[in-house]
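Exercise 3.2. Students should predict the tertiary structure of the chain below and write it as structure tokens, then compare their answer with the key that follows.

Predict this chain's 3D structure.
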Amino acid sequence: MKNIFLTIILAVALMAPQMANAQLVPCGGKDDPCQLCDLFVLLNNIIHFIFIDFVPPIAIIALIIGGGYLLISAGDQAKFAKAKEIFKTVVIGMVLIYGAWIIVSSVLVGVGVMEWTGLFPSEDNKEGWFVYPCN
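Answer key:
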């Protein structure tokens, strides 16, 4: 329990600078009212924060903890097994998180969602189906 608590504190401390700089919605001031398009910007920023800014540092911290258990195991099978379990859990988690994105993207590209929605790469939208062109 103590290790989990320390891991969470360390993860939050490492993520604090990125969370402080995160502007989720670029609207809401007196001269810039929010529109429907800003909802898509918000969702895109949340997904970007989770997939790019949050998950990789947590995975790296978990791998470091697993490596620490591996180094201090010194023949203790329980600590060695815990290190293996941490490594396995991190790899499975990363495969699930990023594999789901790849599968959804492949299915949407395969059924041609970019053509019938107009979200195909163009001059305004160079990214693809997952970026909503907001003007």
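Discussion points: Residues 36-72 form the longest helix (37 residues). The chain has four helices and no strands.
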